[in-house]
Specification:
Elements: E1 9-10, E2 13-14, H1 25-36, E3 40-42, E4 46-48, E5 55-58, E6 60-62, E7 65-66, E8 70-72, H2 75-110, H3 117-134, E9 146-152, E10 158-165, E11 167-169, E12 184-186, H4 187-205, E13 215-217, E14 224-226, E15 231-236, H5 254-262, E16 267-270, E17 276-278, E18 294-296, H6 298-308, H7 312-315, E19 326-329, H8 336-349, H9 353-356, E20 367-369, E21 387-392, E22 399-402, E23 407-408, H10 422-435, H11 446-451, H12 454-469, H13 478-481
Parallel strand pairs: 15-19, 19-20
Antiparallel strand pairs: 1-2, 3-6, 4-5, 5-8, 6-7, 9-10, 9-15, 10-21, 11-12, 13-14, 16-17, 16-18, 21-22, 22-23
Bound molecules: zinc ion (ZN).
Zinc ion (ZN) binds near residues 186, 240, 241, 297 and 298.
Length: about 500
């Protein structure tokens, strides 16, 4: 067995071998060849050593490139090791390129000074995602539905720090109460979670006395804030589900009036259901008589980020809210463009929310931009994919997640939880509590830790009241209907 078979999920994420779990490396390599349309062959076996202890040798040839010999006491063992060695080489090569990806993409921009902001961010996201997907050994897909959080540093360089693809949600039978599963697997939500992972990594490295490229201390709140010269951008390949995309075309006459009345409504996507339904609508029970799982749409969640920030309740113990400077929409269809600003932040600018939110919380109105027409993402890609990838800056490779179970694909049984799960974040949170001297927080459950983030919770209450007052309807929380936050 090669060195790659050691299974561990350390700070670097899953090890190489855990990326294909218990599957036979020979079939993983054959699948690799099929999905990428390259040939995979093995050299003829050769034999060495005395008769009673002979060794077989063979090597995998992938796309014409011969890899290091696999050696074993039988032909089968030698072939398996050859496949494993080839996979390791391919993986290491992809990983090395991925490390350079952001840097390479920025260099290409230097020769193209006329590119728009939206155009650059789109190209960067696509470029990095493409390389990230190449490190995917199992269930290879190239997903067109993608999202990313991109940082713009003070020297004008962009860095994609959190990537996500996917358009599925967990099935209710896979819900668990230990925080191990990912519930909402839409690209923008996954990209945001990948960004949260990035924040944890950065906070782990933060030292008060030394300058940090991302954070500085806010003397007013005493918490960390993002430096003024760093900007945050969200790229999404198509308009978010819900209010931004619920009105593809508004006709004239009675249909138009009906559609307008429902504009701005908070909506949920529903298990086994079509479209996004206003939260105050009655939903009949599922086939088995059980309540159907409902999840707030991406339009509503992005809108919430523009009041509460992207950091969420847990990280609000350590940092001020982080707000987006811009949202880049890769493509759209019909009249969607007229609905996007309302869905993403317009619903926050009506009423008194601006006065009601207590600083540092505020109503954020990001610039919304679109790449030039010739670079629109192909929009006709509604095919739902079960598997999707995520990657956080600094990770060796992508993680492949099954959107219907909310768990990592491959991996040993003990390593099934995604590195983006609530459970993984809570472990990082506890580590930060030790680092930033908050022993009081080590006694709490995940849910209690969230509730103790008082300023965040107060702002959330203000926001939800605002939605109700303006007639947008109630916010539906999965946490209030399923036991998903009570673990410790
Ligand atoms: Zn969505």
């Amino acid at each position: 067995m090669g060195e790659g078979t050691t299974v561990m999920a350390g700070a670097q994420g899953p090890s190489f071998a855990s990326l294909y779990g218990d599957r036979d490396p020979v079939s993983v390599l054959m699948e690799y060849g099929q999905t990428r349309e390259v040939t995979v062959e093995f050299t003829e076996f050769s034999r060495s050593g005395p008769d009673h202890a002979s060794c077989f040798h063979t090597a995998a040839i992938v796309d014409g490139v011969q890899h290091v010999d696999g050696v074993g006491s039988s032909k089968k063992v030698a072939k398996k090791e050859a496949a494993e060695k080839a996979l390791k080489t391919i993986y290491d090569k992809g990983r090395k390129r991925l490390k350079e990806a952001n840097f390479e993409m920025n260099n290409t921009f230097e020769d193209q000074t006329d590119l728009s902001h939206a155009h650059k961010i789109k190209l960067l996201t696509r470029g990095v995602l493409e390389l990230a997907e190449e490190t995917q050994l199992v269930y290879y897909t190239k997903d067109k539905i993608a999202a990313a959080i991109v940082l713009e540093m003070h020297h004008g360089r962009f860095v994609a720090v959190g990537l996500g693809t996917g358009n599925r949600c967990i099935l209710h039978q896979h819900m668990r109460d230990d925080g191990g599963r990912i519930i909402h697997s839409h690209a923008e939500i996954i990209a945001k979670r990948a960004f949260i992972r990035y924040l944890y990594k950065q906070l782990e490295r933060y030292e008060d006395r030394r300058g940090h490229h991302l954070f500085e201390r806010n003397p007013v709140t005493g918490k960390l804030k993002i430096r003024d010269d760093v900007k945050l951008h969200l790229y999404i390949s198509r308009p978010p589900c819900g209010d931004a995309s619920a009105f593809p075309t508004i006709g004239n006459g009675p249909t138009r009036m009906k559609a307008i009345r429902k504009q701005g409504q908070l909506r949920t996507i529903i298990e086994d259901g079509e479209g996004a339904i206003p939260t105050d609508s009655y939903i009949p029970a599922g086939e088995s008589g059980s309540e159907r799982l409902r999840i707030m749409t991406c339009s509503d969640k992005i809108c919430r980020w523009n009041a509460l920030g992207l950091q969420g309740a847990l990280l609000s113990h350590f940092m001020d809210p982080l707000y987006l400077s811009s949202v880049i929409i890769g493509s759209y269809s019909g009249d969607q463009r007229e609905h996007i600003p309302r869905a993403i932040f317009g619903r926050l600018t009506t009423g008194d929310l601006r006065q009601d939110l207590q600083p540092p919380y505020r109503v954020n109105t990001p610039e919304i931009s679109y790449p030039d027409a010739d670079l629109h993402d192909n929009y006709n890609i509604n095919k739902s994919r079960q598997y999707y990838v995520t990657w956080t800056f600094g990770d060796a490779g992508v993680e492949v997640i099954d959107g219907m179970t909310g768990a990592m694909v491959g991996g040993s049984i003990s390593a099934k939880e995604s590195r983006l799960s609530k459970q993984a974040f809570f472990a990082s949170f506890r580590s930060l509590c030790r680092k930033f001297n908050r022993p009081d927080m080590l006694k709490t459950s995940y849910k209690e830790a969230k509730l103790l983030s008082e300023d965040y919770q107060a702002s959330k209450t203000t926001l939800y009241q605002h939605f109700q007052t303006c007639g947008y309807g109630p916010w539906y929380s999965v946490e209030n209907n399923y036991s998903v936050d009570s673990f410790s």
